[in-house]
């Protein structure tokens, strides 16, 4: 009887210990979802003897996965969203609806080449994070590239662990979304009281003057009022379009569908169609045959925003450069020869409703760079700023590499 009780204890105690440590990790509390998930990954590693644990978010609408947090590594092999079909092990876990263990991932072709090269794994476990049949993401783990065994009992315990984790993740995502919506509401109220009021007041004033006193005004005065109406109406139109773009991005209703695009051809066409009046002031230096992984429409919007920003705040000539970036990606830069961005403003450069104003009147609500940044992040890309030399502003868009065939 003692031996039977001992065997039962061996089966139960790992389960209880893992769940107890999970509860303790969550109980520490945090306003940041990454902190919570990081503690959960660390707990999973301790409870099951893993050295490395990564958590990915799953986006059902696009059938893509994107990295969330990692334990035991300071980076992700693929730091961007990509189709789940490119990771067979994760896809198997999704289809099975339960944790999957593979003893030799290379032999079974269970992981992408990028992950194999960067992590050099051997045995790997991957588990879906399921809530009421919906997959929120995945937790994958290994033991530092070593082969190991992971039996049915361990898989059962891991399934319970990840089921509870999924509930915590769902609640954390809901809280983040609630905070984000409250922040957006506050931002919109601030915008409505300032940015929308200014052009609306100008339009009303000009229209009221023409309506009540047109016959008393000279033709030159009427022409000035009509010009003012057009300028402020156009300003209001652009502002409304930018707000709609941001709201769609925030709501996730703008879908990013990366594909292969010829960068040089795309840039020449964009400049010819959208900036014909600045043709002599724009130089394009793009490597022939350079191919990027990007959504064509979003790519055009990012680059056009950067060009508009260069002419609005900077000075010609403006140079658009496209070269091969890090890890086989593509780096597109837009550089002008203006005064650049004041150092004290750089940390706030991509925030909404902020802008640095050099000498002279500059219109705009300060939303263009925020939209460009949001579109870049939706690609798993990075948009950054640095001073140009000998002077000016330089914005760099670092697009991820296109997955190997």
What does this structure look like?
The chain is of the alpha+beta class and 405 residues long. The chain folds into 3 domains: 2-173, Beta-Lactamase (2-Layer Sandwich); 195-254, Orthogonal Bundle (Helix Hairpins), CATH 1.10.287.130; 255-405, Histidine kinase-like ATPase, C-terminal domain (Heat Shock Protein 90, 2-Layer Sandwich), CATH 3.30.565.10. Helices cover 48% and strands 19% of the residues. It is built from 11 helices and 13 strands. It has helices at 2-27, 33-48, 88-96, 105-108, 113-119, 152-194, 197-213, 219-251, 263-274, 296-313, 368-378; strands spanning 52-59, 64-71, 82-83, 100-102, 124-131, 134-142, 259-262, 282-286, 291-294, 318-324, 330-335, 382-387, 393-399. The strands form 3 sheets. The protein has a 6-stranded antiparallel beta sheet with strand order 3-2-1-6-5-4. Helix 10 runs antiparallel to helix 11 (368-378). The longest helix has 43 residues, at 152-194. It is elongated, with a radius of gyration of 27 Å. The protein starts with a helix and ends in a 6-residue tail after the last strand.
Secondary-structure arrangement, i.e. CATH architecture of the largest domain = 2-Layer Sandwich
Principal-axis shape equals elongated
What is the mean pLDDT?
83
Kindly report the spatial arrangement of strands forming the biggest sheet: 3-2-1-6-5-4
Order of helix and strand elements from N to C terminus:
HHEEEHEHHEEHHHEHEEHEEHEE
The oligomerization state is single chain
Number of helical runs? 11
Largest β-sheet summary: 6 strands, antiparallel
